[in-house]
Amino acid sequence: MTFRSGRHFLQVPGPSNVPDRVLRAMAAPTIDHRGPEFRELAREVLDGLAGVVGTTQPVVVYPASGTGAWEAALANTLSPGDRVLMAETGHFATVWKQVALQLGLEPIFLPGDWRRGVDAAAVETRLAEDGAGTIKAVCIVHNETSTGVTSDVPAVRSAMDAAGHPALLLVDTISSLASIDYRHDEWGVDVTIGASQKGLMLPPGLSLNAVSAKALAAHEAARLPRNYWSWTPIIAANRSGVFPYTPPTNLLFGLREALRMVAAEGLPQVISRHARHAEATRAAVRAWGLELLCANPAEYSASVTAVLMPDGHDAGHLLDLVLDRFDMALGIGLGRLAGKAFRIGHLGHFNDLSLVGTLGGVEMGLELANVPHKSGGVQAAMAHLAGA
Ligand SMILES: *Cc1c(COP(=O)(O)O)cnc(C)c1O
């Protein structure tokens, strides 16, 4: 391999760049996970996470990727054969539906075109038809990382209330936590699913469920097999700052540091920073004359922008070139978007010049790959950044 000087640009929409402060915090001797020092660490990270999720209710942390937290949310609240209403917003919603199927649930999949968020009216219609209450949960992805589309969670909550339906609301916030406004308690969410490696600026390996009182009640009655994922022993142990198994101590050191960084910047500022970088990215895409995958401006994602390739041009080729020439990783098109779209991650540990560098790499890549486009995307983004 050729030697690469300088920093690698990791601009996939997760895993995101890990700040040096977080890396240093993790490079510490592992401590006794039952001792007083650990208990203080556990309390600080669980409180900090609750703040980011917007809850005063329990947050359960798992040593697992986001996929584990998906499974945990379903296995803790549902019983074999239960019907769950899911919405086809893109690749991640489709994979979560597979998880539900594998667990022996019966998903009802509201169809989508992978360019829009959850259709709250369709949720209301489907729930209103279910007078017998056979649907036990509505499961949605807040920010569909494969398409760059953010769904309106409060609108889905209102649709459920309008239908007068008792289903639980489960929300995947894996690529929106600490990047896009989200409020577990205020929005009436029952289980929030999150992970460490996107907005939270950590390496992969941690994920979470935030749990409402209603979800805890459903948990008591739920009959899907669960052991490792079970909330009960974890919440009980967490009360005294410990875990019922050996926790990932060094990732928790990193989490503590990342949460301190979010607190120092201020969560509202973190959210508005992401929105501003997303706007500047879209200004670049428009100047290039390329098409955004997200078809509804009200649903543009603040953490990732997906761009459609012109017909006859392969996104994989563009991304290979950008990696080879500029040492930058961009997100490939996932599932049915393979080759047809690419994704620019602008989340987590990120600033104006990271964005200008990222867009510069994309613009040079478009030129080198002979993708039809206009120049001036970086200029448009800089004008936006310098002005706003
Ligand atoms: C990344 C991601 C996942 C998958 O998480 P893993 O940590 O890879 O298991 C699920 N949902 C969304 C929305 C994601 O962005």
Description:
The protein has 388 residues and is of the alpha/beta class. It folds into 2 domains: 9-16 and 267-387, Aspartate Aminotransferase, domain 1, CATH 3.90.1150; 20-263, Type I PLP-dependent aspartate aminotransferase-like (Major domain) (Aspartate Aminotransferase, domain 2, 3-Layer(aba) Sandwich), CATH 3.40.640.10. Helix content is 42%, strand content 15%. The chain is built from 13 helices and 14 strands. It has helices spanning 20-26, 36-53, 66-77, 91-102, 120-128, 153-162, 213-221, 231-238, 249-265, 267-288, 315-326, 352-368, 377-387; strands spanning 9-11, 59-62, 83-87, 106-110, 135-141, 143-144, 149-150, 168-172, 191-195, 207-211, 291-292, 304-308, 328-330, 341-345. The chain has a 7-stranded mixed β-sheet with strand order 2-10-9-8-5-3-4, with helices on both faces. A 3-stranded antiparallel β-sheet has the order 11-12-14. The chain has a two-stranded parallel sheet with strand order 1-13. Strand 6 and strand 7 form a beta hairpin. Helix 5 packs parallel to helix 6 (153-162). The model has no long low-confidence stretch (mean pLDDT 98). Residues 14, 65-67, 92, 141, 145, 172, 174-175, 195, 204 line the site of pyridoxal-5'-phosphate (PLP).
